[in-house]
Write a structure and sequence with these properties.
This protein is mainly alpha-helical and about 450 residues long. The protein contains 19 helices and eight strands. Helices cover about 60% and strands about 5% of the residues. It has a two-stranded antiparallel sheet. It has a two-stranded parallel sheet with strand order 3-4. Helix 3 crosses helix 6, helix 7 runs parallel beside helix 19 and helix 15 packs across helix 16. The mean pLDDT is about 95. Bound molecules: arginine (ARG). The site of arginine has 11 residues, from helix 6 and helix 12. Arginine binds next to helix 6 and helix 12.
Length: about 450
C-alpha cells in the first residue's frame, strides 16, 4: 500500500458509513423532488436522477455494493454519475455533505429506534409470560443480597418490566426529539437557492424542519441521546443478567438457563456456564464506553461542522448493533427459563425473614413502630440463641417480651400468608402482582 492511499484511508468513513446508503438515497430522492418542484432543476433532469437513484437502491437491495469512495455520500454520487452521466451532479445543488450526513443519521436512527422498541416489547412479553406462568412461586426477596422479606418471583420479574417500560419511553422521546429534518441547511449557512425545506422533510417522513442551519450541521445530540438511552437500557439488562446468573448458581439453583445459552468448560466436564448472560453484562461496559466516546468527541468542538463528527458514527453504529443482539438473546433466555419452585422455597432456611411481620403486629396493636422494632430485635436474638424459628416460639415466650402479644401471633408467622397480606398498590401479594400484570398486558 503506498503512502497516499494510506492517507486517504485515514479520513475515509466508507467502511462504516456504507450502511447509510439506503438513507442517503432516500434523502437524495426527497431533495431532487424538492429541487424540481421549486424549479431549481428541470423536470427532465430530475426524472433521470430519480430513475438512476431508484436503480441503485434496487441493486443495493439485491446485494450489489457501491464503488469505494471517501464516504457513502461520494459513493452514491459517483455511482449515479457513472450510470446517468454528469447530470447526476445536479442533485448536489443546495445541499452539502454536512446536512446530508446529519439527515442520513437521523433517518437511520428512526429505523433503529423502531427496531429496538419492538425488541424491547418482545422482552417485555417474555417477562410477562414467565411471571404469569409462575405467578405463585415464592422466594426470599433480598436487600444487600441478604434475605429481607418473602416475595413472589413474578413480582421480582415484573420489576424489570417496569424498567424496560421506562426504556421504551426514553427511546420514543429520543425519536420525537430527533424527528426534524436538517436537509437544506447546506454547509452551515443555508442557501441562496429558492428551496422549500418542508417539501423534502415531508417526503422523508420527518415531523418538522430544524430551525437553525448552524445547529443543524453541528448537532449530534440525537446520537448522544440514543447512546445514553442505550446505556440505561444496558444497565437494566446487566442487572437482570446478574440476577439470573446468581439464581442459576449451584448455591441458589432457583432457575435453569436453557442449554443453548450456556457453554461448557474446556477443563471441568461437569460445568455449564452462563456465558450469554455474562456477555450481556460485559457488553454493558462497552456501551458505557460508547457514551463516553461520543461525549468526548463532541465536547469542545467549535461550531459548526468539524470532521471529528465522522468519528461519532462508530460508537453510534456499535451501540445500535449491540443492543439488537442483546435484546434478541435476552428475550429468548427469559422465554426458555426453567424455574425450580422447590429450591426457591427451600431457600428460606429459617423464618427470621418474617421479623418485620412481628414488628408490624405489635405496631398494629398500638405500639410505636420504633419500639416494636426494638422488641422484635430482642425476640430474634432469643430465637437464634435457642435455635428456634419465630413460629416455634411459644406465646408465653412472646409475652415475656411484650404484653401486646396474643394468641393470633402465630397466624402471622406463615410465609405465604405474609406475602398475601402485602396488598398495597405495587406490593407482592398475588392480588397486587396480578393487577400489575393485567395493566402491563394492555
Ligand atoms: N463523511 C463525513 C462525515 O461523516 C461527511 C461530511 C463531510 N463534510 C466535510 N465538510 N468534510 O462527517
Amino acid at each position: 500500500m503506498n503512502r497516499n492511499l494510506r492517507k486517504q484511508n485515514f479520513i475515509s468513513s466508507f467502511d462504516f458509513d456504507k450502511r447509510l446508503a439506503p438513507y442517503d438515497i432516500a434523502g437524495a430522492l426527497a431533495h431532487v423532488k424538492m429541487l424540481s418542484k421549486c424549479r431549481i432543476i428541470s423536470d427532465g433532469d430530475a426524472k433521470k436522477i430519480i430513475k438512476g437513484l431508484g436503480a441503485i437502491a434496487d441493486d443495493l437491495k439485491r446485494g450489489k455494493s457501491l464503488p469505494s469512495a471517501e464516504d457513502v455520500h461520494y459513493a452514491v454520487e459517483k455511482e449515479l454519475i457513472k450510470r446517468i452521466g454528469v447530470v447526476g451532479g445536479k442533485m448536489h445543488a443546495a445541499r452539502s455533505r454536512n446536512d446530508q450526513v446529519a439527515t442520513d443519521l437521523k433517518l437511520y436512527l428512526k429505523d433503529e429506534i423502531k427496531n429496538i422498541v419492538s425488541s424491547l416489547l418482545s422482552v417485555q412479553r417474555a417477562i410477562l409470560k414467565v411471571a404469569r406462568n409462575n405467578i405463585d412461586a415464592i422466594m426470599p426477596g433480598y436487600t444487600h443480597l441478604k434475605q429481607a422479606q418473602p416475595i413472589l418471583f413474578s413480582h421480582h420479574m415484573m420489576a424489570y418490566f417496569q424498567m424496560f417500560e421506562r426504556d421504551i419511553k426514553r427511546f420514543k422521546n429520543c425519536y420525537d426529539n430527533l424527528d426534524e429534518s436538517p436537509l437544506g441547511s447546506a454547509a452551515l449557512a443555508g442557501t441562496s437557492f429558492p428551496i422549500d425545506r418542508g417539501i423534502s422533510a415531508k417526503l422523508m417522513g420527518f415531523a418538522r424542519v430544524s430551525e437553525n442551519s448552524i445547529d443543524s450541521v453541528s448537532d449530534r445530540d440525537f446520537a448522544t441521546e440514543f447512546i445514553a438511552s442505550a446505556a440505561i437500557l444496558m444497565l437494566h439488562t446487566s442487572r437482570l443478567a446478574e440476577d439470573l446468573i446468581i439464581w442459576s448458581s449451584d448455591e441458589f439453583d432457583f432457575v435453569k438457563i436453557a442449554a443453548q445459552f450456556t457453554s461448557g468448560s474446556s477443563i471441568m466436564p461437569q460445568k455449564r456456564n452462563p456465558d450469554f448472560l455474562e456477555i450481556i453484562r460485559g457488553k454493558t461496559g462497552r456501551i458505557y464506553g460508547n457514551l463516553t466516546s461520543i461525549l468526548t468527541i463532541l465536547k469542545g468542538l467549535p461550531l459548526s461542522y468539524n470532521r471529528d463528527l465522522q468519528e461519532a458514527q462508530i460508537p453510534l453504529f456499535d451501540t445500535a448493533d449491540t443492543l439488537k443482539d442483546v435484546l434478541a438473546v435476552l428475550s429468548e433466555i427469559i422465554s426458555s427459563l426453567k424455574l425450580n419452585h422447590e429450591k426457591m422455597e427451600e431457600a428460606f432456611k429459617n423464618d427470621y425473614i418474617l421479623a418485620t411481620e412481628v414488628a408490624d403486629y405489635l405496631t398494629k396493636k398500638g405500639l410505636p413502630f420504633r419500639t416494636a422494632h426494638g422488641i422484635t430485635k430482642k425476640i430474634v436474638e432469643h430465637a437464634i440463641k435457642n435455635k428456634k424459628n419465630l413460629s416455634e416460639l411459644k406465646l408465653s415466650e412472646y409475652k415475656k417480651f411484650s404484653g401486646y402479644f396474643k394468641s393470633d401471633i402465630h397466624n402471622r408467622l406463615n410465609i405465604k400468608n405474609v406475602i398475601e397480606s402485602k396488598k398495597s398498590l405495587g406490593g407482592t401479594s398475588r392480588l397486587s402482582v396480578g393487577k400489575q400484570i393485567a395493566k402491563a398486558k394492555t
